[in-house]
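Annotated sample (chain length 1526).
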Amino acid sequence: MSLPFYQRSHQHYDLSYRNKDLRTTVSHYQQEKKRSAIYTQGSTAYSSRSSAAHRQESEAFRQASAASFQQQASQYALSSDVSRKAASAYDYGSSHGLTDSSLLLDDYSSKLSPKPKRAKHSLLSGEEKENLPSDYMVPIFSGRVIPIAQVTLKLEETEAYHAKLNEDHLLHAPEFIIKPRSHTVWEKENVKLHCSIAGWPEPRVTWYKSMPINMYANPGKYIIESRYGMHTLEINACDFEDTAQYRASAMNVKGELSAYASVVVKRYKGEFDETRFHAGASTMPLSFAVTPYGYASKFEIHFDDKFDVSFGREGETMSLGCRVVITPEIKHFQPEIQWYRNGVPLSPSKWVQTLWSGERATLTFSHLNKEDEGLYTIRVRMGEYYEQYSAYVFVRDADAEIEGAPAAPLDVKCLEANKDYIIISWKQPAVDGGSPILGYFIDKCEVGTDSWSQCNDTPVKFARFPVTGLIEGRSYIFRVRAVNKTGIGFPSRVSEPVAALDPAEKARLKSRPSAPWTGQIIVTEEEPSEGIVPGPPTDLSVTEATRSYVVLSWKPPRQRGHEGIMYFVEKCEAGTENWQRVNTELPVKSPRFALFDLAEGKSYCFRVRCSNSAGVGEPSDATEVTVVGDKLGKQLFTCHGLVTGQSYIFRVRAVNAAGLSEYSQDSEAIEVKAAIGGGVSPDVCPALSDEPGGLTASRGRVHEASPPTFQKDALLGSKPNKPSLPSSSQNLGQTEVSKVSETVQEELTPPPQKAAPQGKSKSDPLKKKTDRAPPSPPHDITCLESFRDSMVLGWKQPDKIGGAEITGYYVNYCEVIDGVPGKWREANVKAVSEEAYKISNLKENMVYQFQVAAMNMAGLGAPSAVSECFKCEEWTIAVPGPPHSLKCSEVRKDSLVLQWKPPVHSGRTPVTGYFVDVKEAKAKEDQWRGLNEAAIKNVYLKVRGLKEGVSYVFRVRAINQVGVGKPSDLAGPVVAETRPGTKEVVVNVDDDGVISLNFECDQMTPKSKFSWSKDYVSTEDSPRLEVESKGNKTKMTFKDLGMDDLGIYSCDVTDTDGIASSYLIDEEELKRLLALSHDHKFPTVPVKSELAVEILEKGQVRFWMQAEKLSGNAKVNYIFNEKEIFEGPKYKMHIDRNTGIIEMFMEKLQDEDEGTYTFQLQDGKATNHSTVVLIGDVFKKLQKEAEFQRQEWIRKQGPHFAEYLSWEVTGECNVLLKCKVANIKKETHIVWYKDEREISVDEKHDFKDGICTLLITEFSKKDAGIYEVILKDDRGKDKSRLKLVDEAFKELMTEVCKKIALSATDLKIQSTAEGIRLYSFVTYYVEDLKVNWSHNGAAVRYSDRVKTGVTGEQIWLQINEPTPNDKGKYIMELFDGKTGHQKTVDLSGQAYDEAYAEFQRLKQAAIAEKNRARVLGGLPDVVTIQEGKALNLTCNVWGDPPPEVSWLKNEKALASDDHCNLKFEAGKTAYFTINGVSTADSGKYGLVVKNKYGSETSDFTVSVFIPEEEARMAALEAQKGGKKAK
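Output written by the structure step:
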């Protein structure tokens, strides 16, 4: 189970442990807390008294801060549920005790109350809990306790401060700190998904299983909790349907983020075997809980009377407990109880005790400490089931004895233990007392005693300290106290006991304290039955010998078994075999031993034996003969002025305050030979005289010399040498040396005239052979620092070193009185290796001159020119002196490295940096330019940007707090050039991942050596590096490359003309090298494509991956659910080593194939693997796809659809349904259906093109439905369905509307009698096509004057009675449901004028047509009337103004008379009457109406007949008819 972050790394003192979400919650808590109340010394949050006392103090506190607390705390208590969740405590087991959601919230509120709670059940009612603040966060105390009297002032200041904060800076999007993890469980088991989320404002978390999970819709099935930034989803009694992929979605105002986890529920398919159960086999499913007395189907574990979030103070006691209820209850079978703090199991100790009473578990703190703060979890396990519950414990620091003193440090640990020291580490206190912590004091106490002793005199500033002065083998405990300007705080909790033993020894010892009050270690035998007698020690040597003791050291034997060993030391006098055991009673445990009580002057040999419980081993090899006292005060004296080829004998006398001793015995005759080359020439070593360059000596008396000066005394800053005494009477405590030649009467040193040829005759032949010569004189002698009685000189090395490395320098000096040099004296007897030397025992205010001579293996070179005069006086210069020993290396065409040494005189304050100047060698003094604007602290600088072939000189100036000092002597001139054959340092990573720097030099001499340095400091003794040189190649290997190895690594080649190179390892290069080392150490087979899954045509499943290349020896292991699978009926495997493709085939995916598939590659040393996870929705989807492909393959064996039914909108805006068929023949039939009714299709398909279509013209809503096509013949049938309903129909209509909109013509202008009409034609119109009109960018407002409509295929906008305001740009937008299509017309200017004029014309014409005279009706076309009858006709006419009426007969005017009466009444009705018609009245009559707008004529015919005539005519007709019939 993944633990929350604060269970893994919670440390109260260190704010970095708080992850982003908890820091946000803490910030929110602090703001609200400061608004509501100030945490005062009188707060009851940490009171240990009774509940009544708690209530009294709480009441007093509320009265003290009533104004701000009551108002804001009430608002704080009513904060949203989201805010309560942000600060809720993470609780694994609370779901078992709380089933109702409201109860969860109530209990939740009580837990988060800022009021103090000890380890007891809350007795508050629901109302009381609701009135408590619900957003309690982790309190942080980083200052002093605030008295109540300052509450009001502090509140005002705090509110004013927080009012200025910009909360927008705190906002950040959700971020998953811990993502939910996938689980595989058995049926009926519970499972919890956890995640931790950061973000501000507090993200709202929703759990999904394809849709949001509602725990109220499934009571008891799901439990969702959010506490302290930890969000959980618990699924109870999982069944197979719970197998799914779950998603946690976090959202706030800054964004949304999701994380996924899969839950796989397995079902136990076998039957339960009782015999296996009783046999103790572990093959049963996890749904059974095992007990020694049988099995139960499931255990239910509940927590009652649970401990809440608790508060305590350092030094108090506290108990956490809860009642555990387990059902079913099984007697004599107790659960396993385990307590955790921050996810780490707790063990009983002197600080913590656990108790299980049979039904209640208790955790008791005997003495609370800040380290006890954290999230406590109780886990109860019963068989295969367990439940757990968690709550937080806060511990406040104890009140300091001194107000303002810091709290106790935390987590005191022993990081490293050795026999000589133990390294202690700790963490800073949670409370600093209001002022910065100045340091820490460390105390130690030997186990078994109560005596504490302080280990350091001054406070240490870092939380790490090596404690020394320990007794080997003893055990110690430690504590730490912090100190600030106010005082020293309480000591920390003591550390665990640790023994002062070497780690190697601890690994071999099985030790226990013999008694807790002594702390001594008893070495016991680990394997007594297999004891091994130790072998002899190795590398025994005498490391120190004095008059009173001898120190031996050795190495432990290689053969010594697993137990500890002890040593016995033996001695014997030289020349005898009488060995005596020195430490008979007390064996030695350490491989070092000091022997006392030895006879001075006698010679001894020593040896050592090892012993253990198996016996005493063989002795080691004996040491060489050692004379007691022969290594005490061993003096070295260099005698100068000897002549090569001469033989000398020596003797020594000692001197003290009483006088000179007798001479020692004469030494053997020693012949002087040159190490390289010939003897010393006379110009190199002139006669010992008062002339400059001579060495101090006199014939026949004691040689006056300074005491021996070792190299460490010659270093800058060393103590002054002892005075060089001028006479034997003053040389107290010194050693006198004299030399005696073979002919004592002759001069000690031959004259120059005699020495010169002698030197030439012996040196020249050797010079020709070895090409070696003494070095040339040093130069540029300068005074680096001057004191009252000493001076520090510096000089530059010789220009010519003579082909051999310079091994040292000798300095001579003389006094200068009134400008006259005095006698020359030797300043040093032993050669100094540095280019600086401190000369002591000088006279104050005396003027001196100096000479320096260099020496190499060929001999002593000529002395330098006499320096200028320097006065010995105390320098009081405030600024630092000049740096010295400038050196140029790694010279290239555009860069070089300049090195120097710090000034000897640093001034009044330490040197803080350096400035480097450069100029061309031939440039003037005013052309110096600085290379660095800010002072650098290193004593080296890589100078870049040089011009090739140009000669440069350099100087360096030191700076301190006072100012910049004098410049150094010049370095150079140096020509910027890359010499032929120059090579650089190359980094290399071998096949084992070992990183090394390599350098090769082709210009080495036999005496040349490679010298490696880091940041230009020698790495000779570095334990992190290993250097190997062979021939002209060298390699520096990193043992464990890390951050400590960052720097510049350079390699110099001695005895060459400055050959050197360097390599920079910075953080980026370090990362690159470590990555490359890892790749070489753990090589991987390069992969082109990771493991993937694809479905083949017949539904087969193909797993495949591709490597970049595979050798013939490459092997692949196929893993399914952590078990290897092999080729067989189910799996087919194939490897193509040429292409690197690795394949595995499965015919069919079944339910048991759900899981994880891995291909493990191995090709020689290189390995790699690739995995694909097929579980949950992923597996189901793949399984469905495989089954679909299988069915598709079967379907395609008969007539089938190559392309299923689809639709297409033609250019004519018709809908075409089409499909493509395949594998058909003549007998194949195709039938169309709509809504399961067959459609008769006129078109006959010959299937040549394989396309079948159905055309639907003028598609509309009536055509919506489900269309289906069926193919069938004797081989089978296939069908394709197309649903054109709901969204599919809308989509199709959108496309139809789009086509119709695209078919619209441009807008045209048409004038009518009513106004102006704008119109466009479309192919056809459907209601789904939305039409919108706009005028000059604004939507047209429709009214009686402005109307729109559709007539047939015409879409129009009618503007009646247009006005100038109707001018402008008109846009018709046709919206197809997704896109708008526009047509535009401009109704302005000439277009408007012409349309308006036409409108006026049509309007007048319409008016005329409307008002003109016209006959409305009433007159027949023909009137037939019998003679003698009266004819009456009435006709309606209309006109405005009323028309004039006239009558016509046979196109002649007809006047009214008695026979023919014509009347016109009311301007509307005309009457036509003929009284007694006769045949003469027959004819064509006309009514003419006329007014100013026009006239109209209505004609009718009057036919008069006689009845007798008609009868006669009828008879005649009848007769004619009869004749014809005959």
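Annotation: The chain has a mean pLDDT of 76.
Annotation: The chain has 18 helices and 98 strands.
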